[in-house]
Each structure stands twice: as C-alpha cells, then as structure tokens.
Write a structure and sequence with these properties.
The chain is α/β, with parallel strands linked by helices. It is built from 21 helices and six strands. The protein folds into two domains: 328 residues, no CATH class; 105 residues, STAS domain (Transcription Regulator spoIIAA, 2-Layer Sandwich), CATH 3.30.750. β5, α19 and β6 form a beta-alpha-beta unit.
Length: 505
C-alpha cells in the first residue's frame, strides 16, 4: 500500500468515526429527546404562527424544514432550530400589508443572506460578545420563556394549577428514581392520559389552532420578480437574517457550555441559511435556533444531530398523521415543561455573584436582561450589552496608561517612559502626562512598553511632540514597536518636514 492510499484510508476512517460520533453515539437518548422536543415544539410553532398572522401550518412546516436541514448542515450537534418568536415578531407588518407569499419570498432571501454571512465567516464575530452579555441574554430568555406561560395560568380553574404542579413534580422527582426515560416525556404522556380519562375541561393543543392534514409540498412564492418586490422584502429579510443569526450564535454558545463541546459558528450560519431557503420553498416561515427547545433537548439526554432530525421528523408525523391524538395534549403539561426549561436556563449563579463580580460586568448583564425583557427583542438587548462591554473595556484599558519621567545629564534631558495602551480612550491622558513648560534642552519619549492602536493615538503623539518643539525643546521618540511605527509612519506628522507649521493649520 502506498503512502497516498494509507492517507486516504486514514481520512476515510477519521470521517466515519466523526460521522458515527455526531449521529450514532447516543441513538436511544437522541430519539427520545427528539420526541420530547417535537411535542413541545407543536404549540410553540402554532403560537408563533398566530403572532406572525399566518396559518398554523406555516409555522409547523417551517419547524420541520428547519430542523431537518439544520440537522445535516448546522454547525452545532444537539441544537434545535425551528420557527421562533424573535423572527415571528419581524414578519407581522409584511404579512399584514403584502400577504403570505411575500413572507415566503422574504424567508428565501433571509436564507440567502445568512448563507453569504457564513461564507464571509461572520460567525467569528461571536468572540466579541462578552460572557456578561451571554449571561444576560440567557437570563432574559429564561424570563421571557416563563412570561410566555403566564397566559395559560391566568384566569383558569384550579385543575390547571393542579395539573401544572403535578407535571413539575414528575419532571423533578422522576429522575431521582430512573433516568431511563426523559421525565418531560413521561409528564406529557401521564397528564394527557389523566386529562382524557377524566374528561377534564382544560385547554389542549387542539385549542391552539387547526393542525395540518397533509405533507408540505414544494412551491415557488407567488409574487412578481421585480425590483419593487425586492425593495419590499429586502429590509425585512436583512433584519430577520441578523436577528436569526444572532440568536443562533448565542444559542450555540450556550449549548457549547452545557455540553462542553465546540461548534462551528460559520457552518451554523450557512446551515441556518439553507434551512430557511428550504422552508420558504416548502411553505414555511423563517426561523432560527431555539434556546428553550435546545435546553429541553440537552436536559432530555439529546447530544447528537439525530436528536435534531428526530425532532423535525416526529413533529411532522405527529401533526399530519397523529393530529387527533396530539390535539388532546393538555397545555398544562407543556407549560410545566417550559417552566422547567425556564428554571434550568436561568443562570442562578449570576445572581449570587452580583456582589463579587466587577461592577461593570454586573451592569452589562443587568442591562442586557432589562432591554431584552422590556422590548422582547433579543437583538436590541445584545447590542446594548456589547456596546456597554466595549465602553467599559475601553475605559478600563485607558486607565492603565502610565507615564513616568526622570531627569538625566544634570537636568538637561528629561526621559519619559510610557507604559500601556494608547488609543482613543487614553489619548488625552497621554497628552496631559507631559510637562511642556519645563525649561530643558531635550526630551526622550521611550514607548518600548507602549502600543499605539489608532489614528487618535498617533494624533496624540503628534500633539505632544509638536508642543515640545514649539517651546524650543528637542524631542526624540524611541522604542517604537513595528506595528506602532508603521501606523505612525503612515498617519503621523511630527516626523514630517514643517510639522509645526502644518499642525497649526
């Protein structure tokens, strides 16, 4: 066997091992977890369809399509993607003014934009999102998940409360006896059986809306292919693409932490895009990753891609072929499951650590929570959190700058030593650190332990040097590192002819 053949064989073995790890390493638990997720997805997909102003089957078809495609193409095994509320809120106006067909077209375009984002490797931008923002995002989402259950618990009979408490009891107590079957699945089956046996008069899945009775079919959005149409759907598609990717990336990071495994954020962007393209052509709305369902999946033992695929396939089978039985599931059972998700999602340690964590980190986390809960817009909350993180970081780093000095040659030369980062937030401190009025022959500014990051920093150095020269003092800047020297050489003026005169104008 040649070296090439050996390498080829090794590659094939590695690929098969990778495939087996992602798909078949946890088969039983993945299938059971997928079933639980599918049951929990049905009322949510219906609810999101109602929010968007479309028929329930649009959300259900979308959930199947997105889960199916993302199980193969997504970058995060075990993560659940489907029709979701954050996206539904963005569709309302488009559906109201232009109808369902324009929504399907916007969904396809959303997918195309997300694929482009993946190809441009925009998923790597997640590294700029701080831990405090992610924690705030998680806590806010946990609160929103809990708040979403309140309509099912307000102005209802005591039976609903009893069923919900019984469901929570099963969810939390059953794992103490056995973990062979996911407790949320047992909860749904037991409470459905009790509701049917006793004929309880409580809301069920069937009361949420009519379930589809046929499989989705391929269809091209019935809308004119004109620039006017593009002008209508592009703003909506661009917004949905950003919000969808943001929620998917955040959810992927959370699942990374829960499972202690990595994910490919750029592949996830492409996977989400292809999922939405497929959904739009199959009569579904746009969607993205769902943190609540992902947590259900992980808590129920799901780890591999099979759990995501199972969730989509089981959902389609249940709503199309077993719709009469699914309609009997009491909403109280699903409320209990979602309350479990809410409790499990919330980072309780972040509350305990508020006193010990840096104040800036706590402010970022709390601000993210407040904005998300107040606006119900995850993107706005994350944006506020990222901006605050950037502000606090810049302020903190800017305060680290130190400038010390020592007189040499019997006081004829002043040697300044600069330590730290010089950029827009610290440039003023840098300029103010020098004594320009001191009567002295020469000044040496040693920046060997400093770094100049931007043109504001370069401008600050120019200002300092030129101020000294205007007082008749000879100035020499020494110790520039290569990157700083390149920046100063390109944008600086103090080392150019007539620098003093130029700066005056």
């Amino acid at each position: 066997m040649t070296a090439a053949d050996t390498a080829h064989t090794t590659t094939n073995i590695s690929f098969m091992n990778h495939l087996r790890q992602e798909w078949l390493s946890n088969t039983r638990n993945d299938l059971l977890a997928g079933l639980v997720v599918a049951l929990a997805l049905i009322p949510e997909a219906i609810a999101f369809s109602i929010i968007a102003g479309v028929d329930p089957k649009v959300g259900l078809y979308a959930s199947f399509c997105i889960a199916f495609v993302s199980s193969f193409m997504g970058g995060r095994p075990g993560m659940i993607s489907a029709a979701t509320g954050a996206m539904a809120l963005l569709m309302v106006v488009l559906v109201k003014e232009h109808g369902l067909q324009y929504l399907l077209g916007a969904t396809v375009l959303t997918g195309v934009l997300q694929v482009l984002a993946g190809w441009l490797r925009l998923g790597t931008l997640m590294r700029f999102v701080s831990r405090s923002v992610i924690t705030g995002f998680v806590n806010a989402l946990a609160i929103l998940i809990f708040m979403a259950q309140l309509p099912e618990l307000i102005n209802v009979s005591w039976v609903v409360y009893a069923m919900t408490l019984a469901g929570l009891g099963i969810i939390y107590l059953l794992p103490l006896l056995t973990k062979a079957v996911p407790s949320p699945l047992v909860t749904i089956v037991v409470l459905t059986a009790v509701s049917v046996y006793y004929g309880l008069d409580i809301r069920s899945v069937g009361d949420m809306g009519e379930l589809p009775d046929s499989l989705p079919i391929f269809l091209f959005p019935d809308m004119p292919l004109t620039w006017e149409t593009l002008a209508i759907i592009l703003p909506v598609s661009a917004t949905m693409a950003v919000v969808g990717l943001l929620e998917s990336m955040m959810t992927a990071s959370i699942v990374d932490d829960l499972t202690d495994t990595p994910s490919d954020k750029n592949r996830e962007c492409v996977g989400q895009g292809l999922s939405n393209v497929f959904s739009g052509f199959m009569g579904g709305m746009a969607g993205c990753a769902m943190i609540g369902q992902s947590v259900i999946n992980i808590k129920s033992g799901g780890r591999g891609r099979l759990s995501t695929l199972a969730a989509g396939v089981f959902l389609l089978i249940m709503v199309v072929f077993l719709g009469d039985y699914v309609a009997l599931i009491p909403m109280a059972a699903l409320v209990a499951v979602m309350i479990m998700v809410s409790i499990g999602t919330f980072s309780w340690s972040s509350v305990r650590n508020l006193r010990t964590n840096p104040k800036s980190s706590s402010v970022v986390m709390i601000a993210t929570v407040v904005v998300v809960v107040a606006t119900h817009d995850l993107a706005k909350g994350v944006l506020v959190g990222v901006l605050l993180s950037g502000f606090f970081f810049a302020h903190k780093v800017g305060q680290v700058l130190r400038v010390s000095s020592i007189a040499k040659d019997n006081g004829r030369i002043r040697h300044y030593s600069v330590t730290g980062q010089v950029f827009f937030a610290s440039s003023e401190r840098f300029v103010d650190a020098f004594d320009y009025k001191e009567v002295i022959e020469a000044v040496r500014i040693d920046v060997s332990r400093a770094h100049f990051w931007d043109i504001t920093a370069v401008s600050a150095l120019d200002k300092a040097v030129i101020k000294f020269r205007r007082e008749g003092t000879d100035v020499e800047v020494i110790g520039l590192n290569e990157a700083s020297a390149t920046l100063i050489d390109r944008f600086g003026v103090h080392d150019k002819p007539d620098a003093v005169e130029t700066s005056a104008h």
